[in-house]
Amino acid sequence: MYGTSGILPLRTWLDHLHQGLLLGDIGRNYSELAASWLWVAALGGVVLWQGTRPRRKAKKVKGGFAIARHWHITLGLCLLAGLLFFSTTGLTWSQWAGNNIDSMRSALNWLTPQVNTSLDNVKPVAPADAHAEHHGDMSMPGMSMKPATPKPVAVNRSDSDWGNVLNAARAAGISAAKVELRQPKGAGKAWTVTEVDRRWPTQVDAVSVNPDDFTIVDHVWFDKFPLVAKLTRWGVDAHMGVLFGLPNQLILAAFGLGLCAMIVLGYRMWWMRRPSRAEANPAQTLFASWLALTLYGRIGTLLIALALGYCLPVMGVSLLIFLLVDILRWKHHQRQTRAGSAPHSSQRLPLNSIQSRMAVKNLRKR
To answer: What are the TM regions of this chain, as residue ranges (predicted)?
Structure first.
């Protein structure tokens, strides 16, 4: 089985394929790249739709391109919330952006609480009082007792007190049917008993148990988690399809099919409107669009790009590579323009070009 989810080998293989193309840490950059740009593509599509949609609603959609565009837009709007959700939840456990998110959550005290397993200077918690604060040690006046020498903790020994530890955890308030028991990692460490039922209502409480006398050392209750930690837990579990069971998985399947259809329709539109000749369809570069902005616009977009590149490193690196290629294309176009091999109309911005195409199309309909 894989982790605490109890899934079987096929699902484990699919999980690793989704996470990193079975390439380990290097492959994780792929999934982080997708999560970093997914929200940009979703919101960018809405911006393009707002800028190019006709002022009056058409009575009937005709033509192959119009049909593909209609369904691409319809699917995009229907899946918009899901696209933003999967982008956000995917970034929370990504390799590079995930570390930055964890640092932010730590600074704001939004991290998921972890149960303390250290036995050094820790006052045990009475197992019968699951939500009480730590109590002091009991003393017995008039009796002189030598401190007991701690017995060494054997890890993964065959005669470990699994039953006693589980009983102590149950008495402390661990009630889920699915629990995970972990032996002490070494001397001076406690057992941990953690609920691992990710289905709604979430059960992820945890306690640590002293291996010497089976008293409760520490406990963590899900209902005491910070709100952001709860939302992160629910978001990740919904992303993985375990929060609401079969309905959750059916929604994910429908979303995946809708996303694939939207991507295919997008490429179909591009193929139908693909450039036929380089002379008639000169390069339209992002750098030329950036130069067409005002000074404040250029400074603002540059600062936004730097901030996003810092927070989402994989996005920053990929954007830098894209810009280098884009600038090379822009310089090549500039040389063609100076040589008189490209018309002046090639300086149009990409959005303006789309709008002009739509205007020509509407005139032809009239």
So the answer is: 34-52, 73-96, 250-270, 282-299, 305-328
**How far is it, in rounded angstroms, from Cα 87 to Cα 37?**
8
- CB burial of residue 173 (10 Å; 0-12, 13-18, 19+): middle
- pTM listed for this prediction: 0.76
Please check whether residue 315 lies inside any domain of the structure: no
Give me the domain span that covers residue 117: 113-129+155-224
Determine the 3-state secondary structure of 195 from DSSP: strand
Both 80 and 11 in one domain: the answer is yes
354 CB burial (10 A radius; 0-12, 13-18, 19+): middle
Residue type, position 258, single letter: G
The model's pLDDT over 325-360, given as tens digits with 9 standing for 90+, comes to 999 999 988 887 787 654 444 445 555 655 565 555
Q: What are phi and psi of 110, to 5 degrees?
A: -110, 5
**What does the alpha-carbon distance between residue 16 and residue 14 come to, in Å, rounded to a whole number?**
5
List of residues 6+ apart from 305 with CB closer than 8 A: 316, 319
- 196-239 tens-digit pLDDT: 999 999 999 999 999 989 999 999 999 999 999 999 999 999 99
Please, where are the H alpha helices in the chain?
9-20, 25-52, 64-92, 97-107, 162-172, 227-240, 246-272, 286-291, 295-311, 313-338, 350-365
Dig out the tokens for 291 from the structure: 């130069």
| Alpha carbons 17 and 31: distance in angstroms, whole number | 10
The verdict on 99 and 235 lying in the same domain is yes
**Token duo for residue 256:** 């995946």
Exposed/middle/buried for residue 190 (C-beta within 10 Å: 0-12, 13-18, 19+): buried
